[in-house]
Structure formats: C-alpha cells, structure tokens
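Posting for a labmate who doesn't have an account.
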Amino acid sequence: MDDRRDPPVAVAEGKLPDSSSPTRLFLTGLAITLGNPKLIVFYMALLPTIVDLTHVTFAGWAELTLTMLAVLVLVDLTYVSVAGKARQFIRSVRAMRAANRTSAIAMGGAAVMMAAR
C-alpha cells in the first residue's frame, strides 16, 4: 500500500489528569460505577433470586457489600491497566494510521448500508 497518499498522522499529547491524586481519580471512577443505573437495576433484579433477603443479617449485608466492592475494584483496576497499554500502543504513527483507516472503512460501510435501505 502506498503511504504517500495518506494524510500525515499527528500523534498529539493531550493533557492528562493531575497524577498527584490517583486515589481521588480512582474513587471518582468507583463512584460513577456505583451510581450507574444499569448496575443498580442489575443488582435489584439478580440479588433477590440468589440471596433470601428476609434472612440476611447485618453481617451478611456487610459481606455482600464488601464482595461487590472487591469485584468492582478488581474490574476497574483491570480497565485502568488495559487502557494504559492501549494508550501506549495507539500513540504510534503506524497504529494511528491503522485506526484512521479502520474507522473510515466502518463509517463508509455504515453509510452504504443506510443508503441501501
């Protein structure tokens, strides 16, 4: 493929959040996750089918809450790790060119499908 026809790809450095407050950033992300209505509805629908809520003690609620928090923290930390790796990968000119081409093909394909309807 001839890369001379492609427009130049610039990899710009964006401003990142202040790295002096990683705990604050993490807690903000956790609060957003816990406040997600889909997550709340999921637990409201699933929890009564798994646990008999009429017989749950305070200690049982504490165990359920700590388990949920541990799972969410683990999932969030996994997202952070994957996002960091993806950010390093996508910063290369070659990866940006591939991403630009892929998105152009996807948008063109969507346009053709809409026009065909």
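Reply:
Got it, the structure tokens are right above this. The mean pLDDT is 83.
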